[in-house]
Design brief:
The protein is α+β, with helices and mostly antiparallel strands. The protein has a domain of 49 residues: Ubiquitin-like (UB roll), CATH 3.10.20. It has one helix and three strands; from the N terminus they run E-E-E-H. It has a three-stranded antiparallel β-sheet with strand order 1-2-3, with helices on one face. Bound molecules: zinc ion (ZN). Zinc ion binds next to loops.
Length: 83
Amino acid sequence: MNDASICPSCGGTLEDRSIQIDFRYKGRLIVVEGIPAQVCKDCGEQLVSASTSKDIDALLESGARPSRQITVPVLPFRHSAQA
Ligand SMILES: [Zn+2]
């Protein structure tokens, strides 16, 4: 039990959530979803435990087949128009 979890950034309350994080791995953008994390209700800080991070690294290195593919929008940078 670690229910007395306090956000290190703002001192708010952390709750257990399932999140998704995108990674760059070998030049590819990969999204890992269903990651167990603690998320601050106040500032949105996302905390992933060291063992979970290790599991994510192992998952990326394993070359596991993706469960699905998503399309990511790509925007070319442009300077904002100025009058
Ligand atoms: Zn916080």
